[in-house]
Structure formats: C-alpha cells, structure tokens
Amino acid sequence: MSNKYHFPAGNTMLQSLAGSFKLIKDPIGYLSIEMEKFSGTYSGFMPDKGRVIVTQNSDFVNYVLRENHTNYKKAKLDTDVVAKQLGTSLLFVNRDDWRRQRRLIQPAFHHASIHKLYETVISTINTQIANFPQGEQIDVYPLMRKLSFSVLINSLFNIDMSSQMTDELFRAFVELQAFMTKDVLQPFRRLLYPLTGEEKKLIKQWDGIRDMLRGIVALRRADETGHNDLLDMLLNARYEDTGQGMSEEQLISELLILLFAGHETTGSTLSWLLYLIASNHQVYEKLMSTIEKTDMLDSPRDSYINAIINEGMRLYPSVWINERVALQDDQFGGFSFPAGTSILTYIYGMHRSESYWENASAFNPERFLTPEGVIDKNIKNYFPFGAGPRMCVGNNFAMAEMAFVLHAIFKTFHISTTGATPKEWPLLTLRPHEVILEIKKR
Ligand code: HEM
Fold first, then answer.
1. Which atom of ligand 1 is nearest to the CA of 387?
2. Which of 67, 19, 63, 59 is nearest to 40 (CA)?
3. pLDDT band at 149, cuts 50/70/90?
C-alpha cells in the first residue's frame, strides 16, 4: 500500500507515538513545530485513525472543504453520549441526511430571519451586562460564555424561562464538554466507564434535558400566538420532498446542537476579543469613537467593528482544527492517499502563517479593510467559520451577536488589562484559560 500512495513527508508510527504525549499536552505548540519542519503539510499516525494528514496549506484546505467536498465526510463521533443525544443533528450527519437537514434549517439563519431576532438578542445582552460584576480581577470567560448561552436560549425560546431551567441547561452543557474533552484526549478512560458509571450518569442527565425540551415544544405546539423565535421558525419549516416538518426527536436534537455549536464558540471568541481590544490602545480608541457615532442596532453593519471581530477570529479561531475523512482515494498537489484517510485542517496554523499574513502574530484589524475603510471581500487564507457547503450555518447570527456585545460592553464599561496573558486552551474549541481583566463603569 505504501508504494501505491504518495503521502506527504512526516512522522513514522514510532515518532508519532513518541510525539503523542506532547500533542496531548500542548497541541498547538507541537503542531506549530511540525508545520515548520514539514512546510505546512505532513503525515503522521494516530492510534484510532491510522495514517493521517495534517495541513495548514490554504489550497489543500480549500480543496477538501470546498472544491472536492463530495469526496469527504465528517469524522465519526467518538463520544457515545454525544452520538446518542446529538448524533443525528446537522453538525454530525453526512451526505443526503445532512443536505436534507441543512435545507430545512438554513432559512432560519438567513439575514432576514435573524433580523427578527435582534430585539431579543439586544435585550438579553443589555440585561446580562447590567448584572456584570466590576473589579480589578474579573475572569471574563465565564461571563461571556453565560452571556452567549442566554442569547441563544432566548433566541431559540422567546419565553419566560425560569433561571433555574436555564442554569440546569447551562450546567449540562458545561459538564458535557468537560466529559467530551477527557473522552477525546484520554480515550483509554472509556474502559473504566462501566466501573465509574460516569457515562451512564451523563446519559441520564441528558435524557432529562431532552424531556425538558419536549415539554417546551409541547407547550408551543398548543400555543397559537407567534413567539418570533427560532423554535417557531423550526416548527414551521417543511422538508421539500415530503412537505412534512421535523419529527419531535429530530427537532429536539437540532435545538440542542444549535445551543451546543453556538454558545461556546461565540463565548470564547468574545473573551479573546475583550482581551485583544483592552491590550491594544489604538484599536480601543478607534473602537470607542466608532461606538460613539453608531447605534447598537447598526453595529453589525459597521466595517471597523467587523474588522476587529475578523481579526480576533484570525488569531483565535474557535474551531482551530477540523477533520474530514476521504470517501474514495484522492490526490492533491503531488500527494495521494487512500479512502478512509483523515485530513486534519489546522486552521490556527494557517491563520498565523507568515506565508499568508504579514506580521502574522500582530492584532491589526485594518488588514480586513480596503483603503476606503470598508470590509475587504477578497481576503484569502481565512476560515474561521469553515468553508464550502458545511460552513457554519450560524455565522451571520454569531457576527451580529458579537458586534452587539462589543458595542454594549465598551459603551458601558472601561475594560483594561491586568498584565495577565490568557493561556490558549485548545480543547474541542480554542478556549482561553482565564481572561483576567479590570471592568469599571464608564
Ligand atoms: C464565533 C462563533 C462561531 C464559530 C467560530 C463557528 C465555527 C463553525 C465552523 C468552523 C463550522 C464548520 C465545521 C466543519 O466544517 O466541520 C461550524 C458549523 C456549524 N455551526 Fe458554527 N460557529 C460559530 C457560531 C455558531 C452559532 C451561533 C450557531 C448556531 C446558533 C452555530 C451552528 C453551527 C452548526 C449547526 C454547524 C454545522 C453546519 C453543517 O454541518 O451544515 N455556529 N461552525
């Protein structure tokens, strides 16, 4: 087999095994060294996947995600509890099942639809911000995560949900993520689950969450008044082929996946953004003068605010690495590889490569603007929301939400650094480990 295919140069099985401890301990540090060594694309071995290709080459990533996307599928979900609870939802399904779901759900995220949610989003942000703590040593990550979660909950269910219910849901997601992280990084722990019972406990908790959502959906079905939320839109959506709506269980899975995919990504990005802005005097000043002359409602259309968000996601892309599996043998740029090969697209590396970005590690929102000061639509080598047909369905929503949040926070508070640099914590998403900032009312 090794003669038939021409994998990129890389590490042998033994070298990969030796490197695996470093990879688990400091994935970004490890991958950055390998990328340097092998000029942006290399092959290695992973115990559960065999020979894999890791690349930060923009053309290769584009080929896999966009040009030849029909030859690639998402990797199988390893974590059983997630597969059981959420595995049939948009984020994880493949091919025809995916296409059908995407067509059904996408209209709820078109510009015109999400515009209808703005009032809810803005009032949620303002309510949350009014309760922000102030002081010299505030970790803003939990605040941003909770804020993003509340925005999504209220956009999905525009009802008076009790804070106890919201907290229970929030806690379930925090625990699920902690479990998944351990499960992925230390797969050998799976052998212990029958003894520790932790997987069983989580499945029980998630069965309870699904019951809670079933209750909300049942109440909504019996209620004839419009609520102007995503639940209404999803309940009214019809499959093109059958003219029917989603089954109850499918709907619950989709509601959960929107919460799952939409809150941690946005919460992490916002935390990085607060840190970056607070650490950069020029950007801070320019943002303040932009905010002075822009209404909160108009902030998603402001070029400078969008450039700041884009630049934050360039440096800290939430989905910092992604995986696709080849369905048939394939080749790209002189390499060839068999069906079943995993291609790991290292977006973080691409976004920080000096081959693509001048002074790549500097925070410079201007690079996203044309000389006339509007958003440059021709930016390349930039994939914070993925690419091709499986690009993030919630990107417009996320961009608008983040613009609103930045406007509201900087209008209300003075944010400054404490000198502490947040540590990158690349789990399933690229989280910051503590973003300690000073928050004072303006
Ligand atoms: C800063 C915020 C966000 C970032 C950086 C982000 C990033 C991404 C990326 C990179 C993908 C593609 C993954 C792949 O190719 O395998 C994706 C998919 C997805 N995202 Fe987001 N996302 C964000 C916010 C949201 C929000 C707010 C929602 C929903 C409310 C959402 C829902 C989804 C869903 C459902 C998918 C799967 C789409 C499909 O496979 O068709 N995301 N996201």
1. 15
2. 59
3. very high
